[in-house]
Amino acid sequence: MSEQRLRQNARQALLAAVPRPRADQAGQLPRKAQRVLDAELARLPASARPALACRKGCDLCCHLRVAATAAEVFALLDYLRQTVPASEWPALAAAINERAGQIHALSPGQLLRTNLPCPLLVDSACRAYPARPLNCRAYHSLDYQACLDSFRNPAELDRGHPQGAALARVHEGVQEGLSDLLQAGGNDPGRYELVTALAEALVDDEARNRLLAGSRPVFERALPL
Ligand code: SF4
């Protein structure tokens, strides 16, 4: 199957899973997108699923900019609220706010060229792994050394790393499908820088209402990407 077809199929699979999207149900879309993504990836033949260099304990890509829809930001926040002990919240909120402040202080060009650890990292692992946004899920590599070289030279954006073509197309298709569903339901389909959006979601109780009411933009201070 062509790469283009893989992408279209993944997009269509998500659209078919939610035939009548509604603004007030946008909170359910990230979970549906994750399920469709997992199913579409599982359908790939073994030849299209090369061995990944990604391993638990490698957090290089968690120092890069992450783009997420508002629906994904709230799904992530809900997961954190369910799983992070109350005693750890002050430190977590402070870490999110501190990192958001650093990100706001950077120009878009500087942000692309600066390694900043995600505040959700604990011992080099994501504390919200099951609820991480599609952008985080899509990031994969076939070559650890290439990732390390990029990490050590963040200003050189053309270094990059090899990816599985079929895997990348399926991820793209699901991300497009999520954007389509948000658009069709009347929700904000825009993508925001993850940490600044999380920081705003933590303090602005109205932001979730804006998402579910179909208001745009959902976030007023987070960095749009
Ligand atoms: S949300 Fe999780 S997977 Fe995504 S950058 Fe942060 S720590 Fe990494």
List the helices and strands and how they pair.
Blueprint: H1 3-17, H2 29-43, E1 67-69, H3 70-83, H4 89-104, H5 108-112, E2 121-122, E3 125-126, H6 134-138, H7 144-152, H8 165-185, E4 191-193, H9 194-203, H10 205-213
Antiparallel strand pairs: 1-4, 2-3
Helix pairs in contact: 1-2, 1-8, 2-8, 3-9, 4-9
The structure holds iron/sulfur cluster.
Iron/sulfur cluster (SF4) binds at residues 62, 66, 118, 120-121, 126, 128, 132, 136.
Bound molecules: iron/sulfur cluster
What do the pLDDT scores average to?
96
Overall form: globular
- Main beta sheet strand tally, sense and closure: 2 strands, antiparallel
Structural class: mainly alpha
| Helical residues, percent | 40-55%
> What are the segments in which pLDDT stays under 50 over at least 5 consecutive residues?
none
Please report which band the strand proportion falls in: under 5%, 5-15%, 15-25%, 25-35%, 35-45% or over 45%.
under 5%
Number of domains: 1
State the strand order across the main sheet: 1-4
Rg over alpha carbons: 17 Å
Query: Helix and strand succession?
Result: HHEHHHEEHHHEHH
Helical segment count: 10
N-C termini distance: 32 Å
